[in-house]
Amino acid sequence: MLEQRIQQHFIDSADLKYQSAEALSKPIAAAVQAILVSVTSGGKVLACGNGGSAADAQHFAAEFVGRFERERPELGAIALTTDSSILTAIANDYSYEQVFARQVRALGLAGDVLLAISTSGNSPSILAAVEAAHAREMTVVALTGRGGGKMASALRETDVHVCVPHERTARIQEVHLLTLHCLCDGVDSQLLGDQETSL
Questions:
Q1: For each of the chain's 199 residues, which pLDDT tens digit applies?
Q2: CB-hemisphere CA count at 13 Å for 148?
Q3: CA-CA distance, 29 to 163, in Å (whole number)?
Q4: Cα–Cα distance between 136 and 139 in angstroms, integer?
Q5: CA-based nearest residue to 45, from 20, 18, 75
Q6: pTM greater than 0.90 (yes/no)
Q7: 112 CB contacts (<8 Å, ≥6 apart)?
Q8: Distance of CA 154 to the CA centre of its chain
Q9: Number of separate helices (H) and strands (E) present in the chain
């Protein structure tokens, strides 16, 4: 019974990825272009999320500053989820809702990109970060699910919305991780040219 349950997780995850491939390829490609415009002009990506999405933000920043699968120059990315002193000071002195927004206002510049990750699209701290990014004339790349929630109406036409068509958090996060890998690979291919990578 347990093995069948585990197998069903694999099947459900694979099914969602197959079903999402066509619908999400266009917004993911648009996100690659938005990030490329920023980093090739001296800009950077500020990434944020809560819980598992915080881990995704850090995962993306690590592969952007370090590397994904190919050698290339370093690219600017900061995960706004990593400095415990900043996070706890802002949460304590203001509110948790402001933990990312204040960092965006402090670090974000016009032309930078905010990578905002929220499976529901309703996280108050992520919505506040989007508002702060807009005030800084940054482009927002939003990764959501469940129809996009409040994030869908908070985004501008110049922003990019990658909304996973599913309700279950675990499945949405699995597609978010694949999306982040697609972003890294897409940027690398645009900067370095197409190349088959060895698995």
A1: 999 999 999 999 999 999 999 999 999 999 999 999 999 999 999 999 999 999 999 999 999 999 999 999 999 999 999 999 999 999 999 999 999 999 999 999 999 999 999 999 999 999 999 999 999 999 999 999 999 999 999 999 999 999 999 999 999 999 999 999 999 999 999 999 987 655 5
A2: 11
A3: 13
A4: 9
A5: 75
A6: yes
A7: 38, 43, 44, 45, 46, 133, 136, 138, 139
A8: 16
A9: 7, 5
